[in-house]
Structures are given as C-alpha cells and as structure tokens.
Design goal:
Elements (H helix, E strand, L loop, with lengths): L1 H9 L4 H16 L4 H5 L4 H19 L10 H11 L20 E3 L13 H4 L26 E3 L9 H14 L2 E3 L14 E6 L15 H10 L3 E7 L11 E2 L6 H7 L7 E2 L10 H15 L3 E5 L5 H13 L5 E5 L10 H6 L4 H14 L7 E5 L5 H10 L3 E4 L1 H6 L22 H4 L4 H25 L13 E4 L6 E3 H5 L11 H5 L11
Parallel strand pairs: 2-11, 3-4, 4-5, 5-8, 8-9, 9-10, 10-11
Antiparallel strand pairs: 1-12, 6-7, 12-13
Helix pairs in contact: 5-17, 7-17, 14-17
Bound molecules: flavin mononucleotide (FMN).
C-alpha cells in the first residue's frame, strides 16, 4: 500500500489530467454511438457542452432586448419588475422601430378621460371587472361576472408543480381573478380561495370512469363539493397543439396526480386527440347544455382556430336554438403548452389576431356577440397587446406563461422534460422546494395589479373609462412605407360590436360578481 502511495505521489499533478484525457480519447475512438466524438476525440465533447448551454448564452449574452421568442427580454423584464414592485419604466424613449410594418399604434384622445370624483378607480386603481355577465343570456342558474379582465389561463397540476399551482391560486384569490385548472383536474392546490374554472379536456381527468369516459355524476359532485368552481370550460383544443392530445410520461406521474386524474400509476397518461362524449357540433351543443343544466354553471369552449366551417355551423345552431356555449375562449397559435411536437406548436392553427377576428365575425353576422363573452389568450399578458385584443372584441384575457413568469419562470423552455430549474413546471421535489407560495403569490398579485392599472391608464389616455369601450379604430397597424397605416377595422374588415357598459359601480354592484375574497 505504502509503495502505491509513494508511486502516486511521485507523479506530478499535471499528469493526472493528461491521463484522464488520454483515457477519454481511447474511449471516444473505440465507441461508434457518437460520430463527432469518435472522429474528434476529446474536443468532440465541447460540441455537446456548448450546445447544452446555448440557450443560456443566447438569452443572457448574445440576444438583444427585443430578439427572443416567445417573450423577449424587455417583455420578461416588465413582468419581473411588475411582479416585484420594482421600477418597470423605460428611460430615454422607445427602442422599437416604430416605422416597421405590422407595428401597432394605440391612438390617444386629445384630452384623456378624467375619473370623476367618487369613481371606484380613485380608491382602487387596480380593479376592473369584465363588462359582461357570463351565462345570463342562457339563463344559467349561477351566472358569473369575472371581477377581473385578466385571469389565469389553464395550466394543469402535472404540467405545473404543486407549489406553483398553489402560488397562482393564492395570488388569484388575493387579486380577485379566476384560476383555470387546465385539463389535469381539480387538486387541493386549486382550492386556496380563488374562483376556479374547470377545464375539461378529451381525457376528462377527475370526471371519468376507468375507461376514460366522461361521468356526469362526478362533475356534479365536484361542483357541489367545491363552490369555488364558477364556470366549466370544455377544451376542444389549444393554440400550441390543436388536434393533438397530451402525454404525461409515467416518470412524472405521482400517486397524488394519479388519484386526482383518476388514472392508473406506472403508465403514460394519454389524452386522446378528440372527445368521446360527442362527435359533431349538435352533439357538442347538447353536451354543453347538459353540463350547464346539471351544474347550473356557465359552460364555454376553448379552441384554437383553423378551418371555419364548423364555427359557422355552431353559430347557425346557436342562432336557431338559443343554446350553446356561454363563452368562447380563442387561443392563438402562439400559445404555450407543457409539451407539443414542434410541427404542431410552430405551424398548426392561426395566430391570435387572425383566428380571433375570423371567429368574431362569424358570430357577429348572426348578431350573437353581445350574448357571448369572448375570452382571448396568446401572449396577451402585456398591456399594449391586451388593449389591441379589447379593441378587437375580447371581453376577458387569460394569461398562462406571463403568470408563470410572475412566479419565477425564466423561459428555460424545458416544461416537457421535468427539469424546470425554477420548480414551476416540474414534478421534481428538489426543484420545487425553492418555491415559497407565500412570496410567489404576492408576485402574481403584483403583476395582476400592475397589468390592470396600466390597461386602465391606456383606456383613460384614449378617452375611455373601461377597456371594453376600445373600438377597432382606436388601434392602427403600420403597413410598411407606401401604404402608411390602417386601422384594425380596415385591416380585419369588421367593426367590434359595442359592449353595453353602464359604469364601473354597476359592475361592482352585480350580484354575480366573482372574486369575493379579493383584497
Ligand atoms: C405549461 C403550460 C400548460 C398548459 N396546459 C394547458 C391545459 O391543461 N389546458 C389548456 O386548455 N391549455 C393549456 N395551456 C395553454 C394556456 O392555457 C394558454 O391558452 C396559452 O399558453 C396561451 O396563453 P399565454 O400566451 O398567456 O401563455 C398550457 C400552457 C402552458 C404554458
């Protein structure tokens, strides 16, 4: 032993790395699994290392402020600063090329809207309920008026971690917005006080039998046991992967998740591409009516947009029968997901502005738009984007990734492989343990407050009291040099149906107003 020790200590320290590299070179040359490592022993490893840190290098060092997607650094910084109540202003002026084509301009009034004395926004500049009661037109037993124009979009427990869901729910409760469950069912973390919208996808998680069929009795019981549930959202598709079901890999499936979803442990959890409870538009409307009748709650649909024939059929049927969804949630093709094939995420379904305008026009032609609440999602969680959406006819905005960022998501884009470094989109207990729901819920609350306040300020700048008053002529789109600019009205060829608005106080006095616990 002593001899070996003496021999090892006689070798100079720098020889060890050389021996290691020599062994690595032999290993590289003798394997054929990775051609680069075989052909370029030792240095070939650098390729994998640099590729693995490429996103971070680009994000922190190489990319400029406006370059990255889905959300550029300026947008992310605004969300982070707003959620931490830090300075979210910009100095010196815009760094955008405001002459570029496609650029949008919000048109201010010569004199802004002045809040009259006693206006609710003087005491609370962060409150802005939606202007439309959902479910009133169809005489649902429990209509619902969202207390906030900005709400949390569906992201399931499973794609997000338990402390992330809990943070969102506590923050939503404090602010007064609703929290959409996503299609993974209702967990204990969704029951921290906020209004809840149950998202029901093709796998009917939590309201299914052993074979994955929808069970109405389970839905009725769920709603009866949980008065926090205010609406039901039938998910037909989402912008990032329309026509494609989801997969929760068996490795991510915990006992708790399996119980909530009502699926067996140890197997991948598959959501089919289509619903088994209906297979055409009349059957879908029937299904919606049955759920609304059984629960008393408003029921809406969430969908991405592509072909329009079935939308036309739906609108015709709604016009003819007076039945159908109480709200329509349009998800843009730029929308996020826990996991989707790139071909779907990048190419299937229309971006929000094209999809929404096409669908809105279809219902407008049948004079239905004042009877339906339109919800929009797809990178609308920034004040200027939200204003454009309101001008186009959206009544309520749902935010998913912006809400994630407010509680710490850094856009690492690894939601699909359980390694989210911030613990937001992973089931890894160690990674989750860094999330403190008490602190993160406060961050969501601050983001929601700032977002609402800024939308209200933009409304006032344009001469309006409430963002529902924005019209298509309030936003122009640059067409490039020769064509100058065009209003949204001439770009998308319709004018928004004016929303009936009789003042803030009337909304706040509505018996259907949600967010009862809000501070
Ligand atoms: C991690 C993650 C999980 C999601 N899970 C669901 C889901 O379960 N059901 C659903 O309808 N949409 C789901 N979505 C889509 C969002 O609800 C939303 O429609 C989309 O991301 C657009 O909003 P955003 O641009 O504000 O993120 C998910 C999105 C993300 C980022």
């Amino acid at each position: 032993m002593a001899v070996i020790g003496q021999f090892l200590s006689s070798i100079p320290w720098w020889a060890y790395p050389l021996v290691f590299l020599a062994l690595l070179a032999i290993r590289d040359i003798s394997q054929k699994k990775h051609t680069i490592q075989h052909n370029f022993p030792v240095v070939g490893h650098l390729r994998y290392f640099i590729e693995s840190i490429g996103p971070e290098l680009r994000q922190y060092i190489v990319a400029n402020n406006r370059e990255e997607l889905p959300f550029n650094r300026r947008q992310r910084s605004w969300i982070y600063a707003s959620s931490k109540k830090e300075n979210n202003f910009q100095g010196f002026g815009t760094d955008q090329d405001i002459y570029s084509s496609g650029y949008t301009f919000i048109k201010p009034a010569l004199l802004p809207y002045k809040l009259p004395s006693g206006h609710p926004n003087i005491a609370n500049p962060y409150i802005c309920p939606s202007a439309k009661v959902i479910g009133e037109y169809h005489n649902r037993r429990q209509p619902y008026l969202p207390k906030s124009i900005i709400n949390i979009s569906g992201m399931s427990f499973g794609s997000l971690s338990a402390p992330a869901i809990e943070s969102l729910n506590i923050g939503a409760d404090k602010f007064g917005c609703y929290h959409n469950t996503g299609e993974g069912g209702v967990s204990a973390y969704h029951k921290k006080g906020a209004d809840v919208v149950v998202n029901i996808g093709t796998a009917y998680f939590g309201v299914r039998d052993d074979n994955g069929n929808f069970v109405m009795e389970k839905l009725i019981k769920l709603c009866q046991d949980n008065p926090c549930i205010k609406m039901i959202e039938l998910k037909l598709s989402q912008g990032a992967k329309p026509g494609k079901g989801g997969v929760l890999p068996a490795t991510k499936l915990t006992q708790e998740l399996a119980e909530i979803r009502h699926v067996p442990l140890g197997k991948d959890v598959i959501s089919p591409a289509s619903h088994s409870a209906f297979s055409n538009i009349p059957e879908m409307v029937d299904f919606i009516e049955k759920m609304a009748e059984a629960t008393g709650l408003p029921v809406g649909i969430k969908s991405a947009v592509g072909k329009l024939e079935m939308w036309e059929e739906l609108a015709d049927l709604m016009k003819k029968t007076g039945k159908g969804p109480d709200f329509i949630n349009i998800d843009g093709g730029e929308g996020g997901t826990g996991a989707a094939p790139p071909s779907f995420a990048d190419h299937v379904s229309l971006p929000f502005v094209y999809g929404f305008s096409s669908v809105y026009k279809i219902f407008q032609k049948r004079d239905l738009n004042d009877k339906i609440t339109f919800i929009g999602a797809g990178k609308l969680g920034l004040p200027d984007k939200a204003v454009m959406a309101f001008a186009m006819g959206v009544d309520v905005i749902n935010v998913a990734r912006e809400a994630m960022m407010s509680i710490g998501c850094i856009q690492a884009q690894v939601c699909h492989n359980n390694t989210c470094p911030t613990g937001v989109a992973t089931q890894n207990k160690w990674l989750q343990s860094g999330i403190d729901p008490a602190l993160k819920s406060e961050r969501l609350y601050n983001y929601m407050k700032t977002m609402t306040k800024e939308i209200l300020e933009l409304s006032h700048a344009c001469g309006y009291e409430h963002p529902c008053q924005f019209m298509m002529d309030d936003v122009d789109v640059a067409m490039g040099d020769t064509n100058k600019t065009q209003s949204l009205r001439s770009t998308y060829q319709y004018q928004k149906t004016p929303v009936k608005f009789e003042g803030f106080q009337k909304l706040l006095d509505s018996p259907y107003l949600g967010g009862k616990n809000a501070h």
